[in-house]
Amino acid sequence: MRKKQQVQTTGEALEKPESQIRVMWDTLKKNKAAVAGLVVILFFLFLAVMGDWLAPYDPEYSDMGHTFVAPCRDYYFGTDQLGRDIFSRVLSGTKISLFVGVAAVAYSLLIGTVLGSVAGYFGGKVDSFIMRCMDIMLSIPSILLAITLMAALGKGLDKAIIAIGTVSIPEYARIVRSSILSVKENDYVAAAKVVGNSDRRIIFHHILPNVVSSIVVRATLGISTAILDTAALGFLGMGVQPPMAEWGDMLGRARTYIFSAPYTLIFPGLAITLAVLAFNLFGDGLRDALDPKERV
Amino acid sequence: MKRKVIAALLCTSMAITLMAGCGSNKKTGADNASDTTKTETAGDEGNADADAETETGTTEKKASGEMLTKFADVPEDVDKEQTLRYAQGADPRGLDPAMIDDGESSKPICQMYEGLLKYGDSDTEVEPCLAESWEISEDGLTYTFKLREGVKFHDGTDFNAEAVKYNVDRQTVNKTEDMLYADFVYGDVAECNVVDEYTVEFKLTKKSTPFLNNLAMSLGAPMVSPTACDAANGNLNEAPCGTGPYKFVRWDKNEAVVMERNEDYWGDKGVAKEIIFSTIPDNSARVVALTNGEVDIIDGIDATVVDQITSAGCLLYQAEGMNINYMAYNTQKVTDPDVRKALSEAVNIPELVDSLYKGYASQATSILPTFMPGYSADVKQTAYNPDDAKKILEEKGITELKMMAYTNPRPYNTATGQTLAEALQGYFDKVGVKVSIDSYDWTTYKEKLGAGDYDMCLYGWIGDNGDPDNFMYLLAHEDPEMNVALYRNEEYNTMLSEAASMENGDDRNAAYAKMEQKIADENIWLPISHQQNLSGYVSNVQNFIAHPTGNVFLSKTYKN
């Protein structure tokens, strides 16, 4: 049955590309974990958009008269060491984490794709040069590289995006390059060349559309890594400028109170876990749906 | 790639086990506690009222421990082979008393070095130490010290008048930039002369009341071995050598300073064979180390963990601390006194202190702690008035400022500099001033301070000698790492040197009160709190005193 579906997918993809999405959706629907992941992602997206409106308090307003209030009716998740409402802060953190996650991935995707395409398409010295640079970057532990970049750039969301995005450029470059290497030998690419298309046109119109699926899968999984990296930077006190609410930063600050006020730590921690898990589940489901060959 | 999912699930389960683990941990802690309490009570006085049922009551009763003011005699039968482990929040900056200026360095130094004089066990009255007696001339300008005979440094060098002269000259005529305490201790010394082998004479440039107290300080004043110092090119930070009851063994950077008993010590030899000062920067990790029994004594306790310490059966040493926790305005950048006043008005100090330190620190109404000479209840600090603050700051167009803070806990600010900075940021935000915070770990922070790139910064001071001059001199100091407000005021400096030469008494105290008021009126500092000295120790630790200077003298401390 699997085989049949595979044949079907390839067959349809050749005729009508838009129905590929339908097939993908059908496969995805069958994967319960992926659907759950998608639901959680949509929920987080909703919170990110509506968070400010839903939050009962200003997430940055500190009320030193009400510090360490345990979760109760007034403060659903309690208050932190500076009397800020943790519920509002977790909500506000959703926006930041998702934004940094998506923006960092977009940034690395853009640069990684360009570098990977150029390397894969032209080959030779250009390829060697670009890919050796990527290898060098890959040889440094990613979080260490991110920390170093943050230390050099200074605190701030924009800098966090650059730092986290930069460290994952090599991954995208590699994926795109290998996909292009396998696609560019196809006859239609040769045909396009013969017809006299420019390199740019061939890359963007004939090659890249065929490697989109693997990039999308990687990007979805990449968001979860980016969220984790954001949290890690925040935890180390290098992410955002206080008093901005960021999950990792909240976690890092609350660490001291793990025994006396565990709720200051549990809720941002849960939020990180949930978001990362959701993106991972959805990403895996997407991979199964988009790339039937890899399901074996 | 199911691996990712599995990894995520594993993480979650790990987090859950961790929490469960904490729960059970606590339980064991409590169990241990009741055990130790029981044996202790039974062994000590033979009291039989500590049965299992009353364990909570007993623990509570014992929780604050007995606050010794004098070291008791050490019993004969005590284990002399034991190792005493002390954990503090930061690594020493160095182990040469002339080169350092912080409490974390000072604590190990107190075990290895001694000065001419020392303080009482729990006060700052001076007592003889390496000097057996002293005389002060009529005009108060000449001090003659009779030295103790037969004392040797750890490297075998004799301690004599020449050694004293070497030490004083080192920090006066041969002074180098990095001797941060040289001016504090020997600033008024004109010359130091050897009279005979065991007599030494100091000539002062002016009358100085704090001079004797200065000579008992743990920074600057302790005597180092001249031979060792020359051999180490004048810097003993890595190879300390003094006359103290403990000898240096090794220093694993950011881990621990290890020292062993000096068997040739001239006085009562240390009880423990070995003392280890370990560095555990994280507050909660330090507490866990104590409750797990990895270390015997810890300091830098934050109010939020007091319950955790006492419920694990450990005891708390709680005493008034001779310190001040403050925020300083960079007077070279925030030059307008009205702006400084408005900023000070924005902060609700009583609320801040209550909520950050939970009653383990008192609100600072002056720079000097209440029990020190020179303290005056009449000093008026800028009162909380957010409306006025908002109005003035709006008029002056102040919307953005830059604050520098340290990330770790300090003895005068157990809640960490970062937390305090964010709390202050919250108050400034309410009066319309956005404050950005640059925070660094303590060592980096001190270096960054020197550059002066801040509008305000957090700092603190632990009194070294019980004399008001020791606190008030900070505002006249030329070193930007000391005088972080970069306050330069001739009038103040004159007042300070006049007060330093006055005899102890009401007049002198009034002079300091006047200086306090001047600083308060000009809003140079925003005094925040005086932290209590909180140390936690395992219940079998005996004879432990935390000195008001923030130091500990562990040679008589032991475990049963």
UniProtKB/TrEMBL annotation, chain A:
Keyword match Transmembrane: yes
PROSITE patterns membership: ABC_TM1 (PS50928)
Database matches in InterPro entries: BP-dependent_transpt_permease, MetI-like, MetI-like_sf, OppC_N
Record keywords, A-Z: Cell membrane, Membrane, Transmembrane, Transmembrane helix, Transport
Membrane spanning stretches: 33-55, 96-122, 134-153, 215-236, 257-282
Entry keyword annotation includes tRNA processing: no
Residues covered by the ABC transmembrane type-1 domain: 94-283
Topological relation to the membrane, as annotated: Multi-pass membrane protein
Subcellular location as annotated: Cell membrane
PANTHER family listed in its UniProt record: D,D-DIPEPTIDE TRANSPORT SYSTEM PERMEASE PROTEIN DDPC-RELATED, OLIGOPEPTIDE TRANSPORT SYSTEM PERMEASE PROTEIN APPC
Similarity annotation: Belongs to the binding-protein-dependent transport system permease family.
Protein's UniProt name: ABC transporter permease
Organism: Blautia parvula
Automatic annotation (TrEMBL), chain B:
Keywords: Signal, Transport
The keyword Signal is assigned to this record: yes
Pfam family, one: SBP_bac_5
Subcellular location: Cell membrane
Membrane topology (UniProt): Lipid-anchor
Highest taxon, organism lineage: Bacteria
Residue ranges of domain Solute-binding protein family in the record: 125-479
Compositionally biased spans, kind Polar residues: 25-36
Region (Disordered): 25-66
Gene3D superfamilies in alphabetical order: Dipeptide-binding Protein, Domain 1, Dipeptide-binding Protein, Domain 3, Periplasmic binding protein-like II
Secretion signal, residue range per the UniProt entry: 1-20
Bias (Acidic residues) ranges: 42-54
Residue ranges the record marks as coiled coil: none
InterPro entries, per the entry: Peptide/Ni-bd, SBP_5, SBP_5_CS, SBP_5_dom
Family: Belongs to the bacterial solute-binding protein 5 family.
Descriptive protein name: ABC transporter substrate-binding protein
Organism: Blautia celeris
